[in-house]
Amino acid sequence: MAENAADPGGPLDVQKIHYLVRLMKRYDITDLNINDGPLQVRLRRRGHEPAPAAQHLPGMLHYPAAFAPPPAAPAPAAPAAPAAPAPAAPQGILIKSPMVGTYYASSAPDTPVFVNVGSSIQPDTTVCIIEAMKVFTDIPAGVSGTIAEILVKNGQAVEFDQPLFRVNPA
Questions:
Q1: Quick one: pLDDT band at residue 166, thresholds 50, 70, 90?
Q2: Interstrand relation of 93-96 and 101-104 (parallel, antiparallel or unpaired)
Q3: Residue 103 and residue 11: Cα distance in Å, rounded?
Q4: pLDDT tens, 7-59?
Q5: DSSP state of 170
Q6: For residue 12, which phi and psi values (nearest 5 degrees)?
Q7: Nearest residue to 24 via CA among 3, 55, 45
Q8: What is the spatial distance between Cα 38 and Cα 56, in angstroms, rounded to a whole number?
Q9: Cα–chain-centroid distance for residue 115?
Q10: What is the pTM of this model?
Q11: Going from the N-terminus, what domains does the chain have, and what CATH number goes with each?
């Protein structure tokens, strides 16, 4: 396979996981199991999960699914009032997580946070750290502007491409 030349090889690390995710996307693989000695890893692409199959394990009692009552008839509509304008969607650029892991606002619990709401940032400004498999990765802003909103809490688990910050561009 041509991808072997780009295979980072070696023990499973963050770069290897990114490589495997790229292969999964390229070849539309939805579920990948890796067994490498004592290490076992399972990767699944979100949005492609099959419907869960019913499982019957020994010792489990099987109960039939409860039926939901039919929905109540809708109430008669009241006369339409003038619609209020929909709230405007928040403006700005989103800084998204480049990886799955745990979000940290500072490099250590006793050190100041990298950015606060109102902080001025440049593309190379570190805005947070994401830890995955005991590897701490500095996350650069990638844009110039001012932090308008912090969308995650310190210590929160984050997903790939999850918005972390909203930035008002400079």
A1: very high
A2: unpaired
A3: 24
A4: 455 666 777 777 878 877 887 778 777 777 677 777 777 665 555 555 545 55
A5: -
A6: -70, 120
A7: 45
A8: 28
A9: 20
A10: 0.50
A11: 14-44 (no CATH), 93-169 (2.40.50.100)
